[in-house]
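The material for today's practical consists of a large collection of protein records. Read left to right, the backbone structure tokens trace the chain's path through space. An example says more than a description, so a record of this kind follows:
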Amino acid sequence: MTGDSLTAISDCGVFKARDTVLTVCRDASAFCVPRIARVAFILRAARAAFRKPLHCFLLAAALFFYTPAVFALNFFDTTTDEQELAAAIVDAMSDEDALAQTFMLGWRDNAGSPSPLIREWISRRHIGAVKVFGWNTSDTPALARNIGTFQRLAAENPYTIPLFVATDQEGGLVRHVKGDTIDTPGAMAIGASGFPEDSYNSGYYIGRELSALGINMNFAPTVDLYTNHSSVLIGPRSFGDYPEYAGIMGIAFAKGLLSTGVIPTAKHFPGHGDTELDSHGVLPSIDATFETLWNRELIPYRMMAKERMPAVMSGHIAFPNTDAAGLPASLSQWFLGEVLRDRIGFTGIVITDDMMMNGATMSAGSLTLAAKKALLAGNDIIMMSSTPALDDPVWVNLLRAMRQEPEFRLRVRDAAFRIMLVKLKYLRGENAVPLIPDMSKVRTAIPDKEGAVFFQSLAARSVTLIKDDKGLLPLNDEKAGRLFLAGQNLDFFALGKKYFKDVSSYWYSAPVSNDLMRRAARADTIIFYLSNREGIEVLRSFRPLGKKIIVFSVLSPAYINEVPWIDAAIAVYGNSSDSLLAGFSAILGKIPAQGAVPFVLNRQ
């Protein structure tokens, strides 16, 4: 029996008769039968038991002889129904253990080794999850070893409950696990290819790499619609702006992840694509009505709920024209309860976006208040990108609220039950991600060689011809003449110089320099690397020169709307070497530009 269990017994009520002690102990002998829920009964009885030290000692001594039965309450018991086992484990948990399951924490590395603080949160608090960020991933083998260390520490908790180990590996622009993993084209490239199979395979190959590292949860797919083309936060992370299309691609991506044992998480509920603001710094506000949301942003979630999506991430976005009023959706019981649970019918777990983001804390007033509101609203896991102190107010105050507020206590235990159901379903069995990564496989499985070939083909299939009014494409040395490359990517320059003879290059910046204009004036043709709004102003400065201008659009091609006078444009949706190679191959005519922009490009 653990120290926490003895503490729970010492805090309980009065049994007045010795016969009651004998009854509890007699029932404890039933631990060995399959009805594992009896374990919860015993521990509930303990919590309702003695306040007098002698009585506590008698009960503790009596239960000592039944310790093998206590250990029978084990996460990896496969003989008991998942619902029954989840209920028994959560019933047996102390308030501290139930609350800890709702915590997902990031950590800082020190020379590749996790800080002692995150280890303490796992070994002493028994938190339920950790989050891998980009700063943890430069050394791929070290990351795998650290994850193995975390799971070994977690296995020492009273019920051997493993950790969720999560990350953001969407592909393309958002790739938190770097190191040796594949840099993939991303969601908008999948949308441009038009094949759900490409979405499934993207999830599958990303999942294979994550699984090899011991990462069992991915915050993907992103099913935000690309409604606002000024959104730099979403942009190429989206499958496009067609709701049903995003739903189909999201389901396919999720199934690809699940086939590798990795738990997918649809985000950012109810939709982050109709704002150009970033909730890391402010609380974005979207004016859409609920009717608009229901028939637009919420369609992917409605589709995915029917496919039993295991997890959803709530977004820190306000929708003042809905019943949530000025609250962020992540703190709104209306959004997470009435809409997501009741109306959409979602049955999995809800995870907050990073609670350290201003979009969450500004409206609540503090991290502690935001975390409490998030749990009461219906989130099951509160995610924080850093590791607080063990006695940080966010822990102390939430635990105090559990002990003083019955409604909050029930909500936390309900969250722990939902978490346990998902863990029992996905963290056990033959298809589960290994808890302890096999280090001999880490070096051979990452990068995934088969996946690398697939992502090269996806990059090629997604290249899109936006325009070619004067028949410049395919381009060769004769048509190009003196070629000038203006861009912000060294691989772009290297590929251009590889495929054309008379070529010069310049890394542009705004404001436009005289040197840039002199070099551009000497060229016959300019290929311009366009990836952001800053590039639009530079590109416009070339118009008076009267040169042939080809735009090489990277990430979102929405900016091309603002320069309709250009001669030709092709679009790729990632900035990896595969995407750049695919773009040049299309310019040269070596591959067809067969992709289609997955949103309404010429919207005014």
Q: What stands out?
A: The chain has a mean pLDDT of 88. Residues 201 and 586 are 23 Å apart (CA to CA). The two ends are 68 Å apart (CA to CA).
